[in-house]
Amino acid sequence: MEKKAREIIGLPVVTMNRGTKIYDVEDLVLDPERSQVLALVVQEKAMFHSARAIPFGRINVIGQDAVVIPDGKAVIQVNRDPVLRRLYTGMCVRGLRVLTDDGSRLGTVDDMLVDTKTGEIKGYHVSLGRGMTMGQGSRWLPAERVLSIGHRVMFVPADVAKEFEEQTGGIAGALDEAGNKLRTAGSKLNTQLEQLGGQLHSTVPQKATGLLVGSTAHREVTAPDGTAIVLPNDTITEEMVDHARRAGRLSQLALSAGAGPFQQHTGSLGEQASQSLRNIPGEAKALWEQLTGQYTRNLDNADDKVMQRRIKNALGRPATRVILDNDDSIILNTGDIITNRAVQEARNAGVLDILVDSVYVERPKLTLEDLKAPRSGDAALDNTPAVTASSTPGAHTDQLPAATTTITPQGATNQS
Predict the structure, then answer these.
(1) Pairwise CA distance, residues 82 & 38, whole Å
(2) Coil, helix or strand for 228?
(3) What pLDDT shows up at residue 100?
(4) β-bridge pairing 121-127 and 105-115
(5) Per-residue model confidence as pLDDT tens digits over 200-235
(6) Dihedral, CA atoms, 146, 149, 153, 155, nearest 10 degrees?
(7) Spatial CB neighbours of 147, under 8 Å, sequence gap ≥ 6
(8) Residue 195 — φ and ψ, nearest 5°?
């Protein structure tokens, strides 16, 4: 299956194991030397996170409406893969100027065609300019005809210019193609009509005689001079059929023979057909809602669950950026702790996704002093009443006090 790049960009990325949408395709990572798409970018590089991409080998399928991957582990950070890190330069193929190696400009790249199974770039659609593209269409440039690709220019051999001249597209190509089809179809139609006319001329009279003789006429049929060929309720004979044929009224006679039951039957069929046609829009709409509505609801439910997990992970953590509402009022400043109130205000302002993306997730580096409470607890050793010799029953007052040991906050041991 082959798709244009613009048809791939924007597709939702859905996991196979959970059936949830986790990203949208934002860009493609290309290897120009091998004419290959190596990965789909699902998150562009930003200040606080690196770009994320799905290597082509980890993709289950690129379908009509979604990109399916096994699970979230298929997504990797671009800077952890040396090949992707080297090729992820933000280069955009669309808009590249196409120049021949002798310096002639042919147009600009409008899109490219990708094999969705292998990632191979089949070729490029080259626009000749707005006016030229409408009148003559874009030109097809096979990938093997490309000499090199830079950040602004795509070089091709000089003879590609002649190949472009031989291609026809746009309005002009459509008119030429339509004209050829009409001429071909007209010729075939004339031949078929001649053959059909000969068959009808020889077979219809014979079949009409066999079908009509013995039938009952349901309406009057007259000759051009006004004389009656058959009257209602007459049984049609072979002479009546011959008379109708000579007078050019054979078709009227056939209608008369079938007017009663045929008209009644066709009327019933017509009413059924009309009713079916009236029901089609409603049935189609119901089917569409059943298919897409349930799919959309499943995606929405899955997205909600993912968001709830992200919110729980964000609560109590500091924010790494300033979060603004629609009036540019500050919801949270950099370093502020994310609270339930902040989450609700961000949700109301439509910036909840920005909030959960700004969570500081590194493990804080705390010293022993940072972990200590402002004061000692009531049950700490320092607050325990001291035991003296005089308060001990049976103790000798002239006994020397025993050596005591205390632990300083620094962990040193003192004896007295």
Answers:
(1) 12
(2) strand
(3) 92
(4) antiparallel
(5) 555 555 666 667 788 888 888 888 888 888 898 888
(6) -30
(7) 101, 155, 156, 157
(8) -65, -45
